């Protein structure tokens, strides 16, 4: 649970917000109101993969970016390396409610 919460906390940070580390965080907050084109999906997928792989305890597999009601949904498979356990994760970046994690 701690690893998962650390990951969710990372997604709460907008890229460029962290002092001394402008590449930390996600680009999703900056593109939330943009049309979800294939190019944007690829950028988001790369960003999500980088964020997950930033933590040496986990690896991202099969990242899927899609649009839902009022935001962007990310679904991915996480492999927890210390335990060799795989688990799905769904993140919804909502224009009105912020980040919802399942």
Spans with pLDDT under 50 lasting ≥5 residues? none
Extended strand count:
4
- Quickly count the helices: 3
Query: If strands are numbered along the chain, what order do they take across the biggest sheet?
Result: 1-2-3-4
Largest sheet: 4 strands, antiparallel
Q: Let me know the average pLDDT.
A: 91
Radius of gyration: 13 Å
Q: What would you call the structural class? A: alpha+beta
Strand content: 25-35%
Separation of the first and last Cα atoms = 12 Å
Give the helix proportion (percent range): 25-40%
Sequence of secondary-structure elements: HHHEEEE
Q: What general form does the structure show?
A: globular
Main attributes?
102 residues, alpha+beta, four-stranded antiparallel sheet, 3 helices, 30% helix, globular
Describe it for me?
This protein has 102 residues and is of the alpha+beta class. The chain contains three helices and four strands; from the N terminus they run αααββββ. It has helices spanning 2-11, 28-31, 38-54, and strands at residues 58-68, 71-80, 85-94, 98-101. It has a four-stranded antiparallel β-sheet with strand order 1-2-3-4, with helices on one face. The mean pLDDT is 91.
In short:
The chain is an alpha+beta fold and 102 residues long. The protein has helices at 2-11, 28-31, 38-54; strands at 58-68, 71-80, 85-94, 98-101.
Q: Which helices and strands appear, and what pairs or packs with what?
A:
Elements: H1 2-11, H2 28-31, H3 38-54, E1 58-68, E2 71-80, E3 85-94, E4 98-101
Antiparallel strand pairs: 1-2, 2-3, 3-4
